[in-house]
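User: Second chain of the day. Same drill as before.
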Amino acid sequence: MRILLALVFLLPIVAAAQTGVEQRIVPVEGTIRVGIDRDALDSIYIDGGSRGCTTCRFDASELAAYDDGWNAFLNQLMSAMLEKDVSFSELVVRAYFGADGRIDYLLFHVGGSDDNTNRFIAAAEKVRSTFRFTPAASGPFKQSATIRIGAPSFAE
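Assistant: Same format as last time:
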């Protein structure tokens, strides 16, 4: 019985270790379950840049190019989501980039069914395999966005 229990718990770990698979695109709600410590990531990846940022990877002179790079990432992600038929009313994305501009981690909340989440992961994996953030960075950085679909409501 002990051997059976050990196999049940160890087999997924051994399989992941042998294939080198590490989940890097994860729903925000699942980070702890897969061993991603958001506080640890946030201590390594500093803010990329924004107008209110006090400690940023990119300085004020690079801000326009940085915004262009972030918008290029979002455009590719949205195109891949359309291709994979991902639906959402609110998308939360927190991207962690290495100094080389590649996506190291992508934490997200897309809502909907498990199938919708899986389609988002497939779309994000496609982007992760090809996207490289420019301009170049001197070290790892992070950026996040919340995208809402729908008409804003105005109070009269």
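Confidence is low (pLDDT under 50) at residues 1-21.

User: Great, on to the next one.
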